[in-house]
Amino acid sequence: MIEIRELHSLQDQFHARMIFDTVWPAMNETQVTANLLQALVHSGSYLVGIFDGPKIVGASFAFPSIEPEIHLHSHMTAFIESHRDQGLGTLVKMHQWQWAKEHGYASITWTFDPLVRRNARLNILKLGADLIEYNPNFYGNMADELNSGDESDRIMVRWDASGSKPKPRVEIEEPPYDAELIPLPRDIIEVRRADPELASRYRIEVRKAFMSAFAAKKRVIGFSANNEYVLE
Question: For position 225, what pLDDT does the model report?
Fold first, then answer.
């Protein structure tokens, strides 16, 4: 049985840190140090573990932010390999949404790699969140094994927490005739492993398309059945 629990003790936080370091193996360092995580949790940040029975299989971490409004910024959510693609990401996000609402936050923000199709579908379709900003190479060079060698472009997501429960979006079968479409590869992680140069070309093409579209005040209205962002 899956259970989501807040992690307050140093021992519980250690297990969360091991989840982050397992998913994003860092070179000669940890993703987040013990003293920093303890200080943030003690000061009111969000840290939960996802448990399958007694075993921790995932973790999620978020902290308060004030620009452009008082909101919760979700920084890290990760699951061990055996528990990915089972709907747990949606479950955790809904827990995070309820936590943010109960604590008086106007919204939740987070970033994701715009080339990762499953994350785009989760954020746009399942969660019904809004994509508000494109940030080229947002984190600079990332030394973990998953992201090393690629630029860290990220899209900023905003999810309203002030109103009623979020509503999912329906996948778009036939985009409007005047919509702009930004296509994605089915699996950029595999492309990155097999052909780094091709992955870099995808990165630049998607970056240029989003930067141009957002500059023209277009917005993402959905995601298509053909693995495309749909903008108007």
Answer: 96
What is the gyration radius of the CA atoms in the chain, in angstroms?
18
Q: Which residues in the chain show pLDDT less than 50?
A: 145
Using alpha carbons, list the distances in angstroms from residue 176 to 173, 221, 224: 10, 10, 11
- CA 63 → CA 202, 208, 224, distances in Å? 31, 30, 32
pLDDT attached to residue 147: 54
- Cis peptide leading into 64, omega within 30 of 0? no
Superfamily assignment of 2-170 in CATH? Gcn5-related N-acetyltransferase (GNAT) (3.40.630.30)
Q: Are 60 and 79 in contact (CB under 8 A)?
A: no
Cα 109 to Cα 56, 76, 158: the distances in Å are: 25, 11, 5
Amino acid at 224: S
From CA 64, how far away is CA 191, in angstroms rounded?
A: 35
φ, ψ (nearest 5 deg) of residue 222: 170, -170
Domain ranges in the chain? Answer: 2-170
